[in-house]
Specification:
Helices cover 26% and strands 10% of the residues. By secondary structure, it is an alpha+beta fold. The longest helix is centred in the C-terminal third of the chain and has 14 residues. The two termini are 36 Å apart.
Length: 193
């Protein structure tokens, strides 16, 4: 339940964005505690089907497949920085600063907290175009594949959302973006539009 008293399921587009909340075991428990459904939503519409998308179907966040304490977000930041990165601590687990040039705008960014790691081929888009039939391991690999990850300003990543090539292109470097989208889609047997 969000601080406004709204009950969101994991399929809600607000689920992962809500920072102040009270967790419940089920939607019914949230509603029983006085919560309400989002505007315009009925209880029957909130029941997840076996084919409903959720971020959790691609793993529980960023993966640390090699166990070096740097998850795939941190590894993308390290690999894509155009200057040596500084770490938050001596364990070298979290990037504190670096120098990134957003391929979506050309903007230079030094603060990793101002950046998102974008899935060039969005997870929800992939789910709707064939990833729903993949084994979970393939979905986790796809969500953490460095070829599908780019460091960009948070605002453009959120503007893009789960849109495909026919719905969104970045302000800069559109041809490179299209080529990368198509290459990643092809690697995973997804359509390129």
């Amino acid at each position: 339940m969000s601080s406004s008293g709204t009950c969101h399921t994991s399929a809600s587009r607000y689920y992962e964005r809500t920072r102040n909340f009270t967790p419940f075991q089920s939607l019914e428990a949230c509603l029983a505690a006085g919560g309400k459904l989002p505007a315009g939503q009925s209880l029957s519409a909130t029941k997840p089907s076996s084919t409903a998308y959720s971020r959790g179907q691609f793993g529980s966040g960023w993966d640390d497949a090699d166990g070096d304490c740097q998850d795939s977000r941190q590894e993308a930041l390290i690999a894509q920085s155009t200057a040596p990165v500084r770490f938050k601590d001596n364990n070298h687990c979290r990037v504190l600063s670096g120098r990134w040039i957003s391929p979506y705008s050309g903007q230079v960014i030094h603060d990793p907290s101002a950046m998102d790691i974008d899935h060039v081929v969005p997870l929800k888009w992939a789910w709707e175009h064939g990833a729903s039939s993949w084994p979970k391991e393939k979905r986790v690999r796809f969500a953490n594949d460095p070829r599908n990850l780019v460091s960009v300003e948070a605002s453009l990543n959120r503007q893009k959302g789960a849109k495909g090539l026919d719905e969104w292109l970045p302000p800069a470097n559109q041809q490179q973006y299209i080529a990368r989208f198509k290459a990643v889609a092809k690697m995973y047997g997804l359509p390129d539009r």
